[in-house]
């Protein structure tokens, strides 16, 4: 280590430790302000030793702290970029491209390990999909920085700057870091449809539907398939699919589609329900969404969470289960009632999430 690095280590040693979070803030600032001096192995080794000495019970190593600093920087950068995009999308796109390239320097750190997947997964439902769609031996190691989220932001900027092909690439990069993010899958599908790449849009929508468990996600998927048939000028199928979308959940996409269709002066088919709707979806190969196996797995995961006192996840999963199937399972209803009685705060959080769960 050189003189400057030794001074930095001494400064870090001298930070008082009585308030952990304040101490970490101060050390983060030292690292951020001196990042040019802090990335070689000798410094990192010395830094980790000091931190272990200071906080023997916390795992506060260099890589973790740098990742957290970058995560804060990401959030501030995204805020700034959104403001620039509103005025000058081309400049925003240029700045964001430089930022993303620097972010990609991180990726060398993720050496492939057997049975461990580094993904940007933080949401309870995405975590469920990870477990449901992978072999039991595979372990998720969530990345500290949200790479998937950063690529999604990049795609939005690229669309505003009229770089649609590049935006498709960014959405695909985002899906490498979180393959289960339904919003990203549908955004990619919409972009394909705008570009009239229907051979790509259709399987992408089906991919989104296969991971959709919230009623609003199912509604969105069926509205997009309605758009697909509308663009193919198969207006009757589009009409029926928009109505099926609205049966899942009220949404602007399906409403807008129906408004456009109703301007065409023609007789529309009766709105299908029950067996007739099933037969219609069966003909289109759309009868498997949401999959019964997946819903059963969701219910079982909720019961396991409940046994291990993870009430929030249990409540979220069971509320989703009832949203889709209604009150068909007395055991689910009983556990939900119990959770609401024992943890009234769960209901408030559910309202904050702004998902329309109506549990009766």
Outline the structure in words.
Helix content is 70%, strand content 2%. With 360 residues, it is an all-alpha fold. A two-stranded parallel ribbon has the order 1-2. The longest helix is centred in the first third of the chain and has 26 residues, at 62-87.
Order of helices and strands: HHHHHEHEHHHHHHHHHHHH
Total helix count?
18
Please bin the fraction of helical residues.
55-70%
Per DSSP, what share of the residues sits in E-state strands of 2 or more residues?
Answer: under 5%
Shape: globular
Average pLDDT confidence is 89
- What are the segments in which pLDDT stays under 50 over at least 5 consecutive residues? 354-360
- Strands of the largest sheet, in order across it? 1-2
How many E strands?
2
Distance between the termini: 65 Å
Query: For the CA atoms, what is the radius of gyration?
Result: 25 Å
Outline the biggest β-sheet.
2 strands, parallel
